Structures are given as C-alpha cells and as structure tokens.
Amino acid sequence: MTKLSPPIKRGRTADIHAWRAETLLKLYHADFSREDVAQEVEFTRRAQAVGVPVAEITDLVNVDERYGLVLRHIPGPTLLEALTAPEASTTRLACLLAELQSKIHQCLVPELPSLREKLSTLIRRAVGVSGGLIETALASLRRLPDDTRLCHGDFHPLNIILAAEGPVVLDWYKASAGHPAADVTRTVMVLDLIPPAGMGSSSREHLERRRSEFSAAYRKRYAELQPRIIEQIDLWRLPVAVARLATDISANERAALLQMLAGSR
Question: Which residues contact 195 (CB under 8 A, 6 or more apart)?
Fold first, then answer.
C-alpha cells in the first residue's frame, strides 16, 4: 500500500494530496475508472491547446486501486479563498472571473463531447422532479441554440487558482462543446444559490455577505464582453438546473436547485 499524506483538500469526486517534486496528486474516488480519468487528461490538454491556462498534468497513476492525476503544483490561493480576505476587491475578482470565462468561450472545440447531448441525457436521469418537468426541460432545450464553443461545465471561484503568472483553470473533466450561455447559466447558479463548501464558518459568513455584490459584478462584466450571451441565461436556467439534479451534488445544492425550480413553475 502506498503511504499518502493526509488530503490537502477533499472533494465529491477526488482528494488532493501532496506528491513528489513540487507536484500534487488528484486521487479520484474508487468508482472512477481509468477511462474516466484519462478523459480529464484529454479535455485538459484540448483546453491548453487553444490557449487556456491549465494545471500541467505530468502522469496518470494507480494508487491503491484508485486512479489519479499528477499535477504540477501551482502556488496561490483559489479565487474563492482570495475573496475571503478582508481587503479583497469583490468587483475586481468578479470581473477577473467573467473575463477569464469570456476568453474560454471564444475558443472553438468541436471535437469535445456535445454539451446539448450531455444535458439531454442528464435531464432524463434527473432525481426529485416530476416527469412533466423533465419533459418541459427537454422541450426547452430543443428550442435553444447550439454551438461548439469551449464550455468548462463547472466554472466557479473554487476552480480558479490565482497564480503569480496569472489565473489558472482547474478541473476540466466536465468540459464540452456547446453554447456559452449554458456554461454561464451554471456559473450564475453557483454564485447565486450554492452555499460555499470547505470553508470555516467565519469565511462562509463573509462570503455570504459578498455573494450578491460578486454575482452582480460578474454578470455586469460578462454582459459588457458578451451581451448576447448574458441575455439568454434565463432561457437556459430550467434545462441546466434539471440536468444538474442527475449528478452527485451536495444536499445543500440539491435543496437550492429544487427550491429554485419550485419557484419557476
């Protein structure tokens, strides 16, 4: 058995451990196959190939019957951690998030899986909603435009490292080719609805006080950069939210999404 240091961070899909020679090990939970992990390698490299700053993957390993990625360690706080600093500029950090996502959405990657197809499959598997709402979400999705822009799939402040050389985007395993408005809609849901995880109580309270200001500044800056996209997020809200209910999410996120859907009927 390989002796690992205690996890630096724990997540719903993987744990992060210190590894060797200034690298980190992203060790996936046991239900992830080698093919699942290799997919993240491929998606990360495709994002890197079109100019997106990502964490360099140096190896794919098997540790005690769990698959993992060896990543170059990038010193720096996540954007979420930076936001908890008393002196942090909420508007500046929100604008950084919007600007980075807008740059990602300018990249064409038709060879990635279709976001529309992924959403359709997930909507059909959604848990906790009626068959009627599933059919309504599918019908809504069919009416929405398609595209082949690079979409991260889980773009939020915890997945951005503020490195000395500039921001770096983590966790590309949900990447796809699709319409940017779907990706922005997911980000807005996180900013508006999902309680911050993995933080101490004082940090969570601090973030909750800044939530509405941060979300408003993010939307404003993204609208300046991509006005036609930000106008469509209300149209994407139903299919994106229902699809999310088919995934392994926290009880808090599930409750927030179900409450939002109840209010939209």
Answer: 204, 208, 252, 253, 256
DSSP state letter for 249: -
d(CA 118, CA 197): 26
Question: What one-character-per-residue DSSP string does 69-129 give?
Answer: EEEE---S-BHHHHHTSTT--HHHHHHHHHHHHHHHHT-B-TTSPBHHHHHHHHHHT-SSS
- Per-residue model confidence as pLDDT tens digits over 36-75: 999 999 999 999 999 999 999 999 999 989 999 999 999 9
Task: Give the whole-angstrom CA distance, residue 111 versus residue 16.
Answer: 29
pTM over 0.70: yes
Query: How many other C-beta atoms lie within 10 A of the C-beta of residue 133?
Result: 20
Among residues 92, 110, 263, the alpha carbon closest in space to that of 179 is found at 110
Domains delineated in the chain: 9-72 (3.30.200), 79-264 (3.90.1200)
CA distance 241 to 41: 27
Count Cα neighbours of 197 within 13 Å in the Cβ-side half-sphere.
15
> What is the per-residue pLDDT across 212-228, written as a single tens digit (0 to 9) for each?
999 999 999 999 999 99
Name the DSSP class of 139.
Answer: H
Distance CA 139, CA 136 (A): 5
